[in-house]
Fold this protein.
Amino acid sequence: MGLFSRERRWRTRPRRRQDPADGTRTSNRRLIVVRMVIVLLFCVLSLQLIRFQLLSGSHYQLESEDNRVRLVAIAPSRGLIFDRNHVPLVQNVASYTAVIVPADLPSGHESEVYYQLSSVIGVPPDVIQQKVQDALSRADPFTPVPIKENLDQRTVLTLAELRHTLPGVDISYDAVRQYNDATLFSHVLGYVGKLTADQYSRYKDRGYQLNDVMGQAGVEETYEDQLRGTPGEKQVEVDPSGRVIRTLAQQPAKPGNNLVLTIDATLQQHVTDILQRQMQANQAQYPSRSAVAIMMDVHTGEILAYVSLPNYDVNLFTQGISDQDYQALLNAPGDPLKDHAIQDQYPPGSTFKVITAAAALETGVATKNTTLTVPPTRRYDYTGPNGVVTSFYDWAALGTLDFLHGLAMSSDIYFYCLSAGCPQLPGGGVPSPGVGPANLAKWDKYFGLDAPTAIDLPGEVSGSFSDGSAPGWTFPQTYFEGIGEGDNTATPIQMVRAAAAIANGGYLVQPHVVREIDDANGNVVQPPQTDVVGRVPISQQNLDLIRQGMIMAVEGGSAQTAWEPPLKIAGKTGTAEYGSDLANAPLGDNLTQNGVYNEHGWFISFAPYDNPQVALVIFQDRGNGAATAAPTAKLIWDYYFNDYKAGNPNPDASPTPSAGAGTAGQ
Amino acid sequence: VIRDLRRFDYLMLLAALALVGYGLALIYSGSIALYGSGHAALTHAVFKQAGFAAAGLLLLALLVAFDYRAWSTLAPALYAITIIGLLAVLVLGQRAFGSRRWFAVGGLELQPSELAKLVTIVLLARYLADDRERLRTARGFLTTLGLAALPAALVFVEPDLGTALVFLAVWLGMVYVAGARFKHLVTFAGTCIAAIPFALLVGLSGYQKERFSSFIDPGKDPLGAGFNILQAQISIGSGGLFGKGLTHGPQTQLAYLRTQTTDYIFSVLGEELGFVGAMVLFFLFLVLLFRGLRTASRSQDDFGRYVATGIVVMIVVQLFINIGVNVRLFPVTGIPLPFISQGGSSLLTMFVAVGILQSIAVRRRATPFRSG
C-alpha cells in the first residue's frame, strides 16, 4: 500500500526534471522491488520443489525404482528321470539363445538393431521384426523374445562383445532336455517342448514364461508339476538401455523333483528288441504296423517294461521339431506318436474268454464239469423261430470239451454257449440266455475294462462293452462280445491288469510307471506305493480253475507257441477279427479278399504259475495270437527268467545294447 | 586506483566460490556414469572445470583492479565486436543438438553469447547513465530495447530461445531500475502478451514446438522427447528431503538423466542432496544476488548501479530458467546453471561478472544514502 502511494506521488510530477539524487532514490526504491521479485522467484522454485520432493517424494521414489529395478525370472532346473535302478534317462544340457527385449530397443531405431543382429546370427531383419511384433501382441515388452536358438560358441562370443552396441539384444542361457536314449522310452518319458500359445495363456498365471518348456507327452507331461520346480526371481538394476548393472536381491529357483521309474532300462531294452525283431520277422505273413508289450508286477502294479512300437526320437522335440520332421512322424506307418498301449482300443479277441469264463462260473452258467461237444463240422447251426438257420463256427473241430479244455483250447463254440446259451447244440448245450450281455458287461467292469486304468501317462482311453440293452440286440452279438469281438474293445494296459488280477487273487492294482519321487537332494518325497483300486468278486476256487485253464493253454492248448519248459507260464491267446469287411472274411483265414490282414494278435500271460509275479501282454496289429503274439511272449519270458532274473541281464554280451536308432548307452 | 580494498565484498566472493565448489561436487557425481569411476572422472570433467575456475579467479582479480568505468568507454566497440561474433557463430559455429552456439578455438569451446550478455549490460548501462532523461522518452526507451533486442535476435536464430530471453530480462530489469516510465513498461508488457499466440504459431522453430509439446505432455513419448523431462522430475522427486547422498542417486549414476552435468545438473542435486541441498544452493545464490544488489545500491555512479543491476538480473534469470526447466516450470531450453553447470564460457562469464561487481563495490561511496 505504501509502495503504491509512493508511486502515485512519483507519477504526479512526471514532467519535472528530476535532480540526480531523486533519480538515485527512485533507482534504490526500484532495487528493493527487484529484491522482492528475486525472493518471489526463489519462492516459486521452492514451492515446486516442496511439491515434488516433500509432497510426492514417495511417488517419485517408486518411479525411480520402476525405472531401474526389474524382476527377472530364474528358471528352475528341471527334475531328472531315472529307471528303477537309478540309471539316468535324461539330462539337461546348456543351450544359448539370442533374444530381444522389446522394451529396451532404441525407440525409432529398432530396424538398425535388427539389421546388425541379422548380420551376426543370420536371421533376416524382417523375420526378426516379425518375431518381435508377434511376441508384443502376446506378452509385455519386457518379456524376452527368442530370435535364434542353439547359438554356436563363436556366435555367442561375438554377440557378447557386440551387446553394448546392440541395445535390447541379449543372450539367454537355457538348459535343454536331452534324452540319453532317443527312442527307447519315447512313450514313457515323452518329451518337453515350448509352450504353445494356448498353453501360455493357460499357464502364465502359474509363472510360466513365453520361452519356457513344459512336458508335452509321457511322464514329462503327467509329472510336470513335480519336474518343473519353482522358478526363482532376481531383482536387477538396469540402466536405460536395459543392461543389468547389478543384482539387488535374489530368490533362488527351487529345482524340480526327480522321478524314479518302475521300469528297468535293461529289461525295457531287451523287450523292445524282441518285439521289434518279432514284428520284422513276421512281416511277410503278418505285416504289423504297431505292437505293444507291457510287463507289470502283478502285486504292485509297477510297470517293469512298457513298449509301444513304432517309437520315435524324442530328442527331435526338445528344441522345437521342424515342420518336415513332424509331418513325417504324423504320416509314418503305425502312428509312432500314438502310444498304442493306452491311447487306442482294440477288440481283445479270445483273451477276453478268461473274463467270460469267470462270469460263467460265478453266475452258475458253467462249472468245472460243464462239458460241450464241438461238432465235427466245427459248426453250431441255430434254427430260428422263422426256420432260418444261422451257423456259428469254431476255429477247429475240437470234439468234446470240459470247462478247462474249453478255455485251454480256446473253443469259440464253447464260449458262445457260455455267453448266450446254445440250446440246440447236439449232445446237450447251454440253455438260453447263458451269462447274457448284462452280466458279461458287469464282469467286463469287474476286470476294469470299462474305464481307463488311470496309469500315470497322458491320453489314456478306455475299452468299451455293450450290455445288450440297445434296441434290436440279438444273441449273436453277445456271442461275439463273449469271445472278445463285436462291441467289445479294450486297451493293452487294461488287459495286462486283468491278467494280473487273475494272477494275484482277483485284485485290480493301479498300474504306474513312476515308482518314487525324490527331491533334488535325494530325499524321498513320495515313496513307492501300491494302490489296489478294486477286487474282482470271484471265488478262489473259480479263479484257480481259470488259472489252470490258462496254463493248460500254454502247456498243450491253443497257446503252445508260448511254452518254454520248464517255465510255468499261464496265458491266453487272442486273434481278434476287426474291420468293416468282417462278415465277408472266410473263417480260419485271416486274409481278406482285399489281401489285407484284418486280425489283431494278442497274448496275455503271467508267471510263474505257482507264485505269480509278473503279467505280460503282447498286442500286435495285423498279428495272430498263436502265430505271432504267443511266440513273442515266449521269447520275453525266456529272457526274463533265464537271463534277466538269472543274473545275466545282457546275454548278447555286446558292449552296447543292440536297439533301434540312437542307442546312446546310459 | 583502488580506493579501499577493505570494501572488497568478501561475502560475495565466498558465496561465488562456494557455488563453484558445490558445482564441482555435482559435476563429479554426474560424470561418474559418463567417464567411469575414480581418476577417469577427475581427469575429464572436474579438473577441467576447476581449471576454468582458477582462470576465472585470476580474471576476477584483474577486473577488481581495473576501474569499471573504463568499460563505459570501451562499451560501443565491444558491442560491435560481439555482434560480429554472434553473426560469425551463425555461419561458422559448431553445431550441437540442432543449433550453432559456439566456436571451437584450440580445443576450447567459445560461446560468444555468454560474453554478449555482459557487453550488452555494459552498453545499456552507459546509454542509461549518460543521460537519465533519455529513458523517459519513448524514443529513448525503444533505443534501449533495440540495443538488447539485436543480440537477443541473433542468439534466438542460433536457435537459443533461453539466452534470448535472458537479454530481454536483463534489459527489463535495467530500464526498470533506471526509472523507465510505467506507461512504457505496461505498453511493452501488453505488446508481448498480444504477441504470444503469434509467436507460438509462427515464431517458434520446429524443435521449439516439439519441446513445448513435450513439456505439456511428456508422457506422450516417455522414451523420446519426454524422456528428459520425466526423468528430471523423477530424479528430483525421488530425492525427498535429504536426497540419496552424493554419488548415490540411481537416476544419475545409471544415466537415466541426460546432460546431467550441464542443463540437468540441478536434477543431480535434487536426487542426491534433496530438498535440503536445494535450499543450501538457493541460500548461496541469494547471498550472492543480494550482495550484488547491495553493490548496485551503493554504487558511486549510475553506470555502476545499472551494470550491477544487469549482472544480478542476468544471474537470477539464468538460474530461474535453468532450475525452472528442471522442475518443469518451463519447456526444455538449454541454459546453464550459473557457477554450477559444467562449461568454461559460462563459468568465466560468471567470474567476469563477479569481478565487475567487485570493481564497482571497492569504488563505492563511503555512505550509501546521502539523504533520507
